[in-house]
Design a protein that fits this description.
This protein has twelve helices and 13 strands.
Length: about 425
């Protein structure tokens, strides 16, 4: 008499294990031992019953099979199982009461077995061995899934190349984007964690202004004109804070679309960022020199944030007993002037916007490190901040398909160069 039953146990991993033994008590014993791990246990009481089941399904992570069974023993059953290509990847653990004779073990491994469990069964050992092969199964499934995704992406890429008959320059661009997207996939979790923190960083300034002007209202409550002025400042800071929250959260989720970009006059964004910094500018008597800036396609709030962060840094890192001077200049970039010229979109005009100051500067060897999130060149006790302001600038400029670099010498000021396309090609 043969039979086959299936008992589905609640599992988040859909792990299926086939147990083959001619004794019902052994089947029940193994099922009881493994039920704590929430596997789906399928049982067969003979090699023939197992083969019949395997004709209908082959999604088993592991097979546990008794060696000594009537009619068809475990070694014979394993040989037939592995004759089917779809079943060759399922590991088999033999269950036996035989001694650990090397010739006997060799025969089992030769038939395709991966391990042995000896009777009487040690529950902890059985669970441990099963867990190892289940984990291997999961890893293999993940690798296969990744391979399919990669093959699908590669197929799509080749199809696009054929359909659009891309020029040599565009093919190079697509290849580079594929590499960048692979890097992006590796780092996305880390980036999301970083920007969860970044979202709170730049909210400190508008909150501080709200507190400052709230205190001023308390002190100047008899002067209605002053009160109204402070209330407007509070309202402006609140609006900026709300807008900043929305844009940073949106930015952290990588959801910028072509529709987010509009034609903006960078002169207006620069002026708005200076208005936000008017308290610090007045306090430190900052001198500004600005050249006319162009009209480009950009996300206004994000580009305003770039100006704000760079100006705020220039003021923060000023030299003692020296008037801070900030100079903003702009010119059309010539390809030979940029170390990123090979990444320029052909036919697109790029502008170079330089923001220079006479602050404390930094050692040139740190010109790339300063754009890393949380990277600080000075201790918190010397200068306030969390080390994320410049990383935000780089992230925003990257999203605008531009480039940002820094040059400096200690005690001689710093210069930040932003290379920004006039129009967006919208490659995200």
């Amino acid at each position: 008499m043969t039979f086959e039953t299936a008992k589905e146990i609640k599992s988040n991993n859909d792990i299926n294990i086939l147990v083959i033994d001619d004794r019902e008590d052994n089947l029940l014993s193994i099922e009881t031992i493994l039920e704590k791990d929430h596997y789906n246990i399928f049982k067969a009481n003979s090699g023939r019953a197992a083969l019949k089941m395997l004709l209908r399904r082959h999604d088993f992570s592991l097979i546990l099979m008794d060696v000594q069974m009537p009619e068809m023993n475990g070694l014979e059953t394993a040989t037939i199982i592995y004759e089917r290509d779809k079943l060759k990847g399922i590991p088999i653990i033999f269950i036996t009461a035989y001694s650990k004779d090397e010739d006997y073990l060799f025969k089992g491994y030769q038939m395709g077995g991966v391990d042995y469990i000896y009777k009487p069964i040690n529950p902890d050992l059985l669970r441990a061995k099963v867990a190892v092969f289940v984990e291997l199964y999961r890893k293999n499934e993940q690798l296969m899934s990744n391979e399919k995704q990669l093959l699908a992406a590669n197929k799509t890429l080749h199809k696009e190349i054929e359909e659009r008959k891309l020029s040599e320059e565009k093919i190079k661009l697509l290849n580079r984007q594929l590499v960048e997207k692979n890097d992006h996939l590796k780092n996305v979790n880390e980036e999301l964690d970083r920007f969860a923190y970044v979202a709170s960083h730049d909210l400190q300034e508008p909150l501080r202004k709200i507190r400052v002007f709230s205190d001023k209202i308390t002190s100047a409550k008899e002067d209605q004109q002053q009160v109204e002025r402070y209330l407007e400042k509070i309202s402006s800071s609140s609006r900026r804070m709300q807008s900043l929250i929305n844009n940073l959260l949106k930015f952290s989720r990588y959801t910028l679309n072509a529709s987010d970009f509009v034609k903006v006059n960078l002169n207006e964004l620069l002026a708005e960022s200076l208005t936000e910094l008017d308290v610090e500018i007045e306090k430190n008597q900052v001198v500004f020199y600005t050249d006319p800036l162009p009209v480009v396609e950009a996300v206004p709030e994000l580009m305003r944030q770039v100006f704000y962060n760079l100006f705020s840094n220039a003021i923060k890192f000023k030299q003692k007993n020296q008037t801070p001077v900030i100079h903003v200049s702009c010119s059309r970039m010539k390809e030979e002037e940029s170390k990123f010229h090979d990444r320029y979109v052909k036919g697109t005009t790029y502008y170079g916007i330089k923001i220079s100051d006479n602050g404390i500067g930094f050692d040139e060897q740190f010109s790339e490190d300063i754009f890393m999130v949380f990277k600080r060149l000075h201790s918190f006790h010397e200068f306030e901040g969390t080390g994320v302001g410049l990383s935000i600038c780089k992230k925003i400029i990257d999203k605008h398909n531009g480039f940002i670099t820094a040059s400096s010498k200690a005690k001689e000021g710093s210069t930040f160069l932003i290379e920004l396309p006039e129009k967006q090609s919208h490659h995200y």
